[in-house]
Amino acid sequence: MQYDYSKNKDEHPEPIKADLKGLIPEWLQGTLIRNGPGLFSLGETRYNHWFDGMALLHSFTIKKGIYFIVIQAFMYAYHICRDAITLPTGDWFFYLDCILFAILCFALPPIDSNLSVLVYLKSLITCGSDGSPPLKSAEVVCTVPCRSLLTPSYYHSFGMTDNYFVFIEQPLKLDVLKMATAYLRGVSWASCMKFHPEDSTLIHLIDRKTKKEVGIKFYTGAMAVYHQVNAFEDDGHVVFDGICYDDNSLYEMFYLDKLKEQMGADTVYCKPKCKRFVLPLSDMGETGEDLVKLKYTTASAVKEKEGKVLCQGEVLCDGVELPRINYNFNGKKYRYSYMCCVDISPVATKIVKFDVETKQKIEWTGGDCFASEPVFIPRPDAVDEDDGVVLTCIINAKPVQGGFLLVLDGKSFKEVARACIDVDFHMDMHGYFIPGSS
Ligand SMILES: [Fe+2]
Asked: Which residues are involved in binding Fe cation (predicted)?
């Protein structure tokens, strides 16, 4: 199976009705917005790395009674994260910008039942479309000093419980001087990042009430983490799950020239592991003692000295990425995550429902196709955590066949419906579902 990563994709600003097979639940109404790189050259300018490609946004709208899908695409002449302040104006366009910015910047949308959405997203949306800086009303929740000002840690997502933030300072570092000159030198951001296997990974635990770090320094071995799955508190501990890599080879694989080579079983690939870490909220105990008292995990946190604890994660499963959960359980003890299977290569051909308690997996695969991050949408008034549907965008590897939006049952992980669209989808990264009838 091949996918041309470097091909510029077309816009389809007009709605396209989908050919629906199966039955979408009546309660499922809203818009799934998904985002990923879709433009890799503009005039003479070409990007070398897939992650540097300019954003292409597509949306799938599901309306009651009339099931149809809309694809809308907006391209940006600059990198969205870098230029958030100079976004185009106009209410609708601006709104989409905000959503896109949030999806891009916050892979794990930190939503809980009390906070509406992350403060940055709230601030972006509530600011005017009169050209005023969209980050003007952003609130600094807390500040965590980094180990080195010239080589700060790369950061992609964070964990959040009712009382704590979990912030990982990993030894995947940005070289600030290289980044400042990257544009002039015509190199990608990826080339300005370096993994330092000799360094440790610091795990910052921040008290949301005091807005300060707790008094214990937690650390573990070198790892690279892009996506955290969830975090929760349990009997004097903070538990967090994340997708962890032993190195930074993932980034290296996504140079466009490397992506032209077929990925397969012989691909040298550092497979990610879904790991659980446990942070004890007290370091009372003997030196050398494992302070983790939870029975259901093998994760450890050994007291090295007063205020310093060495953590070792438990591998829950491996070969998975782009995790999503029922966000009604974000920050709370949870059981299920929905992820892409990246067992052989970082490009997923399967998705999986994973039970973190039993370690059981249920997989979905469609044969010759690429699967995107599975987004779980709970059924209104659902009691069970997995009562809902999972939406994922599927690219058909056979060029004559278009892609489709796949709807799976959240419990059985069986196909409920698929909405086929005769369009050449681009491979996206993250999605966000906005409930509603519009
Ligand atoms: Fe991400």
From this structure: 156, 227, 430
The Cα–Cα gap between 334 and 48 comes to 39
Residues 255 and 190 sit within 8 Å (Cβ to Cβ):
yes
Does residue 375 surpass a pLDDT of 50?
Answer: yes
* Nearest C-alpha neighbor of 350 from the set 312, 303, 394: 394
DSSP 8-state symbol, 114: S
Q: Find residue 337's DSSP bridge partners.
A: 354
CA of 153 to the centre of ligand 1 (A): 16
Tell me, in angstroms, the distance from the centre of ligand 1 to residue 158's CA.
11
Q: Which two tokens stand for residue 267?
A: 């691909």
What is the CA(108)–ligand 1 centre distance, in A?
7
CA distance 317 to 341: 11
Ligand 1 ion: nearby residues, β-carbon < 5 Å: 107
For 288-307, the pLDDT digits (tens) are 999 999 999 999 999 999 99
Task: Judge whether 227 is annotated as a binding position.
Answer: yes
Check the annotation: does 426 bind a ligand: no
Q: Are 221 and 280 in contact (CB under 8 A)?
A: no
Q: How many CB atoms lie within 10 A of CB 299?
A: 24
- pLDDT confidence band for 228 (50 / 70 / 90): very high
**What stretch of H or E contains 308?**
strand 308-312
The confidence score (pLDDT) of residue 53 equals: 85
Name the DSSP class of 84: G
Of 241 and 429, which is predicted with more confidence? 241
The pLDDT value recorded for residue 212 is 92
> Three-state SS for 137?
coil
322 within 8 A of 345, measured Cβ to Cβ: no
In the predicted model, is pLDDT for residue 201 greater than 80? yes
Residue 237 annotated as binding? Answer: no
Lowest mean pLDDT among 81-95, 240-254, 346-360, 405-419: 81-95
Give the pLDDT score at 402. 77
CA of 422 to the centre of ligand 1 (A): 27
Q: How many whole angstroms separate alpha carbon 294 and alpha carbon 256?
A: 45
Report the alpha-carbon distance of residue 431 to residue 406 in Å, rounded: 13
Kindly tell me if the per-residue pLDDT of 121 is higher than 90: no
User: From CA 315, how far away is CA 11, in angstroms rounded?
Assistant: 41
Asked if 123 contacts 171 with a C-beta cutoff of 8 angstroms, the reply is: no
* HSE value, Cβ hemisphere, 13 Å, CA-based, for 162: 9
Say what percent of the chain tops pLDDT 70: 80
